[in-house]
Helix-turn-helix domain-containing protein (Paenibacillus shunpengii), 180 residues
Amino acid sequence: MVAFDLESPSGEPGFPPSYSGVNPSSYPHQLIELFQTLGPAWAGKKPGYLLHCRSIIMEILYHMIRTRTFSLPNSPHTPAIENIINLMQENYSRYYSVQELAVMAGLSTSHFRLVFKKVTGQSILDYQNQIKLGKAKDLLLSGECNVTEAALHTGFGNVYYFSRLFKQVMGCNPSDYLRK
């Protein structure tokens, strides 16, 4: 058996207010199976059990975050937003206008902005920049690109703007990620 004690940031025991009313029976079946796998993996203490348990916990956290992130109650628009996010991730070197994305989602521009922010917690521009900067960081870490090449590869025409934005969002200069 695996038991967890939850504590809020203020030190009070129990679920944070945003999770109050969560019914464990409403969790996805896959999440329940992961919890059921975790107990025996920990108790068995077979070689590599720590790594196995950590990976199960990471998967549980992933599912919980994903469920929490994409949980608009009874919203018919969530699948459209997920499709837009997938499109932006696949075409990270391109900037999409809000109007363009709204048309693809079949929503008005203002409604699309509102729904996108509710689903992701970010504005469309911030989300696009996050995708681009994440890819640029991966390129820099891999050693495939220098800063200028990473900026151009991810759709930034101006390397100075890219560097300023990178530092603002990531907290350090892009050159700090260059593989030495």
About this structure: The CA atoms of residues 117 and 123 lie 5 Å apart. The mean pLDDT is 82.
